Amino acid sequence: MTRSTIELVPDAADRRIARYAAAAIALTVAEAAIPMPLPGVKPGLANIVTLVVLARYGWGEACWVSLLRVLAGSLLLGQFLAPGFFLSLSGAVASLAVLGLAARLPSAWFGPVSMSLLASFAHIAGQILVARLWLVPHDGVFYLVPFFALAALVFGLGNGLLAAHILENGANNEN
Amino acid sequence: MRPGDWLVLAAAAAVCVVLVPFALSGGAPEKAVVKRDGAVVAELPLSARRTLDVPGPIGVTRIEIQPGRARVASDPGAHQYCVRQGWLTQANAIAICAPNHVSLALTGKNAAYDTLNY
Q1: A110–B4: do the CB atoms touch at under 8 Å?
Q2: CATH code for the domain of B36
Q3: What is the model's pLDDT at position A59?
Q4: What are phi and psi of B40, to 5 degrees?
């Protein structure tokens, strides 16, 4: 066997991203087993991991963790390149864009709960936009907006509180 | 929860409250379609009050429109089924005055029912 001429040496950040992404992927798979009353509504527990990474290591690593989770989560669930994958991706990209801006807010005032709520609303906005433009080109999708907004409020708040709890108690703070 | 978090939470809740009417708007009618012998006589928006007299084989059927609803106000038919149906308020509701060959139907997006009649 010939040795590879390309040597990829993972640094501490790479290992950290891999570890957090693995946790996020596990949550994605676990939550796929939870039945939901409305298709497309999910708690988005994996976003707790994104929020923790955002607070601890910044926006760049949060992007890596979030996008790796979308990619690997969809592969594991057999959703890769299916409509659900593009909805996840559009939601994640919209959330990350908003988080990139929201992370600049004064942290004494705006904590993980703010980040979570802003991200969850950005998530449904991104998803509905893609759904309207591409998957369901009919104004009927907007009929679902109030239900998605309510879900974003409830789960955004819940995930934010959980992320704040994890950050304050310093659980799992290994490197 | 930090001070700004409450602010964001309040804003998010406000967005949800503002969106509630959207959830309830399904089935709201937009237009009244009046037909005689299956041919459309008039399509009237349900925005202003007006009445419309439609002559048929046995007399005149009077249609009355009010914002958001419509009814057959009077009809020469013997049984008065379409008149007794009263105000139509849902999309796809229909009142049929068969003896006089006249029908009144409401149309709208997001109709909750395929048809509604008496």
Answers
A1: yes
A2: 2.60.320.10
A3: 94
A4: -70, 125
